[in-house]
Design goal:
- By secondary structure, the chain is of the alpha/beta class.
- The chain has two domains: 140 residues, Rossmann fold (3-Layer(aba) Sandwich); 199 residues, Rossmann fold.
- The protein contains 14 helices and eleven strands.
- Helix 2 packs parallel to helix 7, helix 8 packs across helix 11 and helix 11 crosses helix 12.
- It starts with 8 loop residues before the first strand and ends in a 13-residue tail after the last helix.
Length: 363
């Protein structure tokens, strides 16, 4: 894009959390960069997601929203001094609105969630068939900036892989493969069994079954990823497997996570942030949906993906973002998804045709 010689404007994009939502901003950021007028693009997020912004070329200044109230006041004064032409508030909650009020920009554009549609979809199951499906959240972010002449380019999410992080992750895989007596250049499957809310998590025993099936089908290089708060889950899964698995729970940062996922053959995930990272680096995705549904806007965006879910349950979705536990106490949305269903999706995503007898996983 050739920009005009006019003095650059300045735009602030606010998306404080979470991992997936930050990744979903990348089409918008790319199209802001493509505008005829040159803009300095600042992005504000929480500190834990800041490394991810290093993987987004279209952000000029990466800004941290602090936890300390005094630091927040200082930040607001600094932002007000930047004299923004526009603030794009993708968070659109009481915190982000207080930031915008302190800045007093020339223009404010707020992301509007499909709250009514979501409420009807959750609480009036009989009307679901008549409801329109809202656009994906990433498209909603793009539409938020339409008054700025932002035009959707039809492309997907985009994260750049940091070269240093990629080198470190290749080394990590080489060591794992050497210790497991695997070919050095074998491409791993990557599994992300965690999620922020329990009702979005497939059953641990099913993950074990799936990984055994995959190993029996020839996928001998397997990696379990997750945050530090998921270390217990991942250690438990690893302990139930009788073949070597690489685990990285809490031991790598977001830039390294992005690099590692980019090196995977397929990512298998719950409805959680890693699936959006995979979509942004071109790794095929298998996603397991339980208490949430793709129609809420968080399906893998414009990428190769297989979705595994139980259709026809009147109790799903039960919440836009998941719950601590199943409100009906039966958890059918996850219990009825067996490892064979996910294995078939994994084989489709990887382009492999293979039949694995059930006896192979009952070890």
């Amino acid at each position: 894009m050739i920009h005009s010689n006019a003095k650059p404007g300045r735009i602030l994009v606010i998306r404080l959390s979470s991992l997936g939502d930050v990744v979903l901003t990348t089409p918008l950021l790319r199209r802001l960069r493509a505008l005829p007028r040159r803009y300095i693009i600042d992005m504000l997020t929480r500190e834990r997601y800041l490394p991810l912004l290093d993987c987004i070329d279209d952000v000029d200044n990466r800004l941290v929203y602090p936890d300390d109230s005094a630091a927040v006041k200082t930040l607001k004064r600094q932002l007000a001094g930047n004299h923004y032409d526009a603030v794009i508030d993708l968070q659109n909650n009481i915190v982000s609105r207080s930031i915008v009020a302190a800045i007093n920009p020339a223009g404010v554009y707020r992301f509007r969630r499909a709250r009514v549609n979501r409420w009807l979809r959750i609480h009036l199951p009989a009307r679901r068939g008549k409801l329109k499906t809202p656009p994906p959240v990433a498209e909603g972010y793009l539409a938020t900036a339409k008054p700025l002449q932002v035009i959707d380019d039809g492309l997907g999410l985009e994260l750049n892989v940091d070269a240093v992080s990629a080198q470190a992750m290749r080394k990590l895989l080489r060591v794992y493969h050497a210790e497991a007596n695997l070919p050095v250049d074998i491409v791993p499957l990557i599994f992300a069994p965690g999620a922020r809310h329990n009702s979005k998590m497939w059953l641990p025993e099913r993950w074990v079954e799936l990984m055994r099936r995959a190993y029996a089908a020839g996928f001998e290089s397997q990696v379990l990823i997750g945050g530090a708060d998921e270390a217990g889950l991942i250690e438990s899964l690893q302990s139930q497997l009788d073949f070597p698995v690489l685990t990285t729970a809490g031991s790598i940062n977001l830039k390294e996570l992005t690099a590692l996922v980019s090196l995977g053959r397929v990512l298998v995930s719950n409805d959680s942030g890693p699936m959006h990272v995979a979509a942004a680096v071109g790794t095929p995705v298998v996603v397991i949906f339980g208490s949430t549904v793709p129609e809420l806007g968080f399906a893998p965006f414009r990428c190769p993906a297989e979705i595994v879910q139980i259709d026809g349950l009147e109790c799903r979705p039960c919440h836009p973002h998941g719950r601590k536990r199943c409100p009906r106490k039966h958890f059918r949305c996850m219990k009825e998804i067996d490892s064979e269903m996910v294995m078939k999706a994994l084989l489709r995503a990887s382009g492999v045709e293979w039949s694995v007898p059930a006896a192979e996983i009952q070890r």
